[in-house]
User: Fold this.
Amino acid sequence: MPRWEYLIRRLILSVLVLLGVTVITFTISRVVPSNPAALWVGPRPTQEQISRAREILGLDKPLPVQYIRYISALLQGDFGVSVRTHQPILTDLRTYLPATLELVIAAMLIALGIGLPLGVLAGAYKGTLVDAIARLIAVACVSMPTFWLALLFQLIFFSNLHWLPVSGRLSTVIKLTHPIEQVTGFYLIDSALAGDWELFRDALVHLILPAFTLSTYALGLTIRMTRSSMVEVLQERYITTARAAGLPEREIFFKFALKNAIVPTLTVLGLSFVYSLTGAILIEVIFSWHGLGTYVTEAVLAVDFPVIIAVTIIVTVFYVFINLALDWFQAILDPRVTLG
Amino acid sequence: MTEPLLRIEDLYVRFRTDEGTIRAVNGVNLEIMPGEMFGLVGESGCGKSVTGLSILKLVPHPGRITRGKIWFRGENLLEKPESAMREIRGRHIAMIFQDPMSSLNPVFTVGHQITRVIRRHHHVSRREAWERAAGTLDDLGIPDPERVMRSYPYELSGGMQQRVMIAIALSCGAELLIADEPTTALDVTIQAQILELLNALRIRRGVSILMITHDLGVVAETCDRVAVLYAGRVVESGPTDAVLQAPAHPYTQGLLNALPRPSARRKSLQAIPGSVPGGIEEIPGCPFHPRCALADDLCRSKTPIMTPVDSSGAHLAACHLIGKSEG
Assistant:
């Protein structure tokens, strides 16, 4: 199947998946015992206030009607309003989603940038000291609880060494003196676009600790996955062919072998990425990094269903597209893979 | 007399495994002359592939060359550092393998793989390398080289893949080609074409070829001289005609008797009793004596050395029975 045709077909399927997700989450939100109208009104509501809230929220209409109203609003980019804070969800997402994405993307880049070369070297020099060190790092990364690691990092790099800030996305002083113009919501990008390098530097040093903490689990997986697929690939005959042609080892490892070995690593990283969108809650809390994880956790505790559905949809979108991208990558890397 | 292009002296290769040390190669001696096609035959596990890989010092882990010398162009390769070996591999000595499909990297185009090797050994631009690669493919009788170079290995037939392998091997002008079972995985008709191609290359370019094979038919058709390997030792060597028509070693005789021959309408083929030794336990005396019908006490205690079989002095065999029976 031609690649573009495949892409279009997958996109259509993705829309169906998303529709399915909205149906399920919407249904669950109406079945679970909760009282959104009461939540909307606030503490100690009167009966009259509640019934008015039911009208405003459209809860008095039949379920299918509610769903259709929800979907048609959604198609216009309107996620609705949080029943807890009365804030439009889209406004919230504009701040929380970029914050999380900035953190998660940085973490995945760290995992890839450190884990891939380490994994390649560990696989290439299997059984040597390099391998032992890489495996030790991998095991430590996977088994260390992130909340503990986060505290440890804060203790070392903030309290003891005074190298890095303890939490937040920006220092208070910088925040007051350098008004940030929200274009993408990524502070690194926005500050660079504005040419405000002091702001950029401040955003960067705030990003380092949480990003490193978040990257550890994915880093450990990256090292292990890369190592094991490298070990497998390096036994292939074409590696001997490359050696018999006198090609340098480094090129054999990082080009001829890695291109054959990288797909499982990318899959692991892709899935870690999506997981971290809402799963980074502990890190978000410890580093006061207000992102999607914190946002949805608060919503869940308050049974704020419009927010839960909105975040679910966002995460599903990412999930679907990351999967598509992974399949696409695989087809690009390996010409034998047929899409279809 | 011309100097040999390659001379292997007393080569020993050991594989240290958990089950014990495997003696893969036990004192192999052989010489390959410039422009010669030299056959190295033996059953699976006799050490012929390991001997081939030893020449490039690419014996896989946990194998190690423990003794011997490999002289190539006046230098002992076994004393050369890895960096110097990388200059020799592909440039002066090249190797092709049994299964061309798995010998080519599946995720790079053929053109990429050939030009990369050319650019490794010659300082030429990408375009020049590409043209040289296309020239080599054309030279090997591959129709539409440009199309082949833009293809991935899986898009080519087995015969075409092996031609591409030969092109990669010879694109830098190697003087010695080690061909490890180059036709075993191919159809019979394609086999003949590849053998013909190798023979043509030898004649046109003067490339010496070490033909590693278990197929005596291949040897008979193509090789000038042949060495028969058994349990990591050369047991018989000499001009192909002499060895195949008047085999002196019982093992060579056994191999020939095990060949199906349409002319001699024998009822059944004669197999050699027993099987190839695993290489872990050391066999005292002649390595072949446990499977040899003619073995006596001398064979069981003393290892025979290579002795001339006839007056020419070119045909040698390592057997105590030479000169004993009919003289």
Remarks:
- The longest helix of chain B spans residues 188-205.
- The radius of gyration of chain B is 21 Å.
